[in-house]
């Protein structure tokens, strides 16, 4: 396992103690002038390079779901064509035209499956993942445009408890976990909290079921939270990330 820390939320560098994980590699590239897409592309390109260079399974920890595209692109650079299992309380399948908030993180999965390639995939050498090769886990808080898209999309939705080797696409997997998939009552301080979700134990158990298949080639963990309000909140986050950063099986076969 190689733990790669990417201390960014979009193009904002996070405080040093915001992501309490011991990293083997820290991605902190200089950001160029230009618009937000130009700046974040530098972060995602550096993430892809770090993932591609990892000698065993990379675990990418960041503050932003958009960074997952860099993780997928890095895996692709090793000659592996992964599917994506996306744990999230939200759909992340907006486009620039459907988003009502303008929050770019709400486009993350849709960008990985091919939306707006000139702004995202093309800039980091990402080969978009076919929608049928992506599975959305939980996603209990959907905007109307997202619900409409998913009704006609090949991207499937499943519950956390239904995550098994058989319910996800065949072949190698990149597993993305937005920690807001966990019930907000258990994990305070999230930027976009959603109540009524699974426990951290249920999410960790679902991830373990996937890891046991030997097909997980990268784990991508997004921590979209505000700075910790105190030591109890900070230590709770550290314990959760420690569970996700335990030694894992080696990369599965392509």
Walk me through what this model shows.
There is one protein chain. With 254 residues, the chain is an alpha/beta fold. It contains seven helices and ten strands. The protein has helices at residues 36-53, 68-77, 108-112, 121-124, 144-152, 200-211, 231-244, and strands at residues 2-6, 8-9, 12-13, 25-26, 58-62, 83-90, 134-141, 156-158, 173-178, 216-222. Strands 4-1-5-10-9-6-7-8 form an eight-stranded parallel sheet, with helices on both faces. Helix 1 packs across helix 2. It starts with a strand and ends in a 10-residue tail after the last helix. The model is unreliable at 247-254 (pLDDT under 50).
Characteristics of this structure?
eight-stranded parallel β-sheet; alpha/beta; globular; 19% strand; 254 residues; disordered C terminus; two-stranded antiparallel ribbon
